[in-house]
Amino acid sequence: MRAGLQPLILIVEDETDLVTLLTYNLEKEGFRTVAAYDGDEAVLIATERRPDLVLLDWMLPHRSGLDVCRQLRRGPKTRDIPIIMLTARGEETDRVRGLDSGADDYVVKPFSTTELLARVRAVMRRAAPSMADEVLRCGDVVMDLASHRVRRDGRDIHLGPTEFRLLRHFMQHPGRVFSREQLLDVVWGHDVYVEPRTVDVHIRRLRKALNETDETDLIRTVRSAGYALDSQAA
Ligand code: CA
Description:
single chain, binds calcium ion, Arc Repressor Mutant, subunit A, alpha/beta, Rossmann fold, 9 helices, four-stranded antiparallel beta sheet
């Protein structure tokens, strides 16, 4: 994996609603995404961008996902890329199971986001053990995603689950300013109604946990815009 970059996932699916949903959920978990809407585009993008994983739908226009899977397995630049096939419920599941298509795993539609993300992580862990056990760093703050541990300047930082998610999001996008609404969406999810000022409460808790009195405040308040985590600080 290329150091310093979040894993790139190629989504191959012709249903735009599903692409949108997958993109949203994968990016929320810190992955980068790129989409292809048919098989030829998929092969082109996979060869050029060398994604860390391909989510490949079986039912595609012009040529099937299975055919694309076989071509990716033959290509010298794409043969090692992990592939998860997306299949409709029914006979195709058995066919995927039975056929030696070269896919690493498959997920049956309709699937839950939780299930898909678990499969993505499992396949990536097998392909590149360092990728799933990811460690985020920003200044003197280190976040170990696998063990959920956070340290600043060598000391343990204890965070509640909401503060942990907030910090993870900031550490995945250092320097970027997020509005309260964006943070609500990412950290609480967009189905939940939470008042924007709730964000301020959790930011205050996060600051208190992160910063000792003599330390630089890593979280920057941007007047009338929101908050950011400064990578240059500390
Ligand atoms: Ca499809």
